[in-house]
Amino acid sequence: MTRDGQAVSDMAKRRAGWHPEKLREMREAHGLTLEGAGERLRHVARSAGITEPAANFQTLWQHEQGEVYPGPHYRRAYCLLYRSTEPELGFRNALPGEATSMSLTPSSELHNSAHVLAVERALAQIAPGTDDSDGLGMQQRIVDAWKRRHTGGDPNRPTLLMVGGFAGSGKSEFSRFISQLTGWPVLDKDPITRPLVERLLVEMGSEPNDRHSAVYRDQVRPLEYQCLLETAYANVDCSISTVLTAPFISEVTDTRWMRRLVNRCQARGVYVAVVWVRCDLETMHEHISFRSAARDSWKLQHWDEYAATIDPELRPSVPHLVVDNRLGSAISLTDQVRQVFGTVFA
């Protein structure tokens, strides 16, 4: 393993704000050896239900020396282990206005004032994307539902929360976080429709992992979203609050499509909120690469062609809220809250 200062400097230049020496400083401040840090990283990852890193001492040494930039699962585990944010640990520069320090501690009480403040802080990531969207109202609905799980009595109508964004933006992770807070079920397009979509594509002469051809776009995708919506309507018809997650790239920019959805929900007394997860191309590429899903093969093999179809500034054409997950900032914060309030979310 090289200790060459110039090599470390060149690597760091490719990662704005990366200061690998902070990892070593944090580990030593906690009195941990490399082996001890690896054991603790694996433990916190298992406890949090995220991908468990191998975390051998050689890899951790490479992280601390700046020879290898930690992947997303390592960065999440490091943040949980040291109760810190990515900017605090020197992984990157902070986004404008991003919370860069954590001062939360575990508590056995179900929802004391510190709990409420911590949850509200995490939910502040849901910011208005349009002037006519009710960000504070949506945040309060989620807090009320969280409290209801322990005290009873939700003053709000049932909610259909639509979470959209490009592949790898973090929408599934964010949806699961909201579900853990509220108890609302998550309907995720891929696990709900994938077996049918793959079989249908094969029967139509395409590949099971095709998500880019005209066959998929014109003949399969509309059916895929129809199945997802019909599943959501089954909950809506029962007045069950639901988190619905899928890219929704075409749907949220189609005002008429959205109006039909809102009208059907409102007719059943269900409130609809649209959340758009904002992300940058590099982070999306990293997350898509890490999850290694077969359906992403074409994207990764033709990344430049795929990236040319992505508009990072795309926003829904209807009133909506925005979660800024550039550089994984929002998901890192939700990880912290999920860990601190593990007894609450269990």
Question: Which terms summarize this structure?
Answer:
346 residues, alpha/beta, 6-stranded mixed beta sheet, 16 helices, 8% strand, globular, disordered N terminus
For the residues shown, what is the average pLDDT?
87
* Global morphology: globular
Main sheet overview: 6 strands, mixed
Number of helices: 16
Q: H/E element string?
A: HHHHHHEHEHEHHEHEHHHEHH
Percent range for β-strand residues: 5-15%
Uncertain runs with pLDDT below 50, 5 residues or more? 1-9, 104-108
Cα-to-Cα separation, first versus last residue: 42 Å
Q: What is the tally of beta strands?
A: 6
Instruction: Tell me the structural class.
Output: alpha/beta
Radius of gyration: 21 Å
Strand order of the largest sheet: 1-6-5-2-4-3
What does it look like?
α6 (113-123) packs antiparallel against α7. The protein has 16 helices and six strands. The protein starts with a helix and ends with a helix. The chain has a six-stranded mixed sheet, with helices on both faces. It is α/β, with parallel strands linked by helices and 346 residues long.
Brief synopsis:
With 346 residues, the protein is α/β, with parallel strands linked by helices. It contains 16 helices and six strands. Strands 1-6-5-2-4-3 form a six-stranded mixed beta sheet, sandwiched between helices.
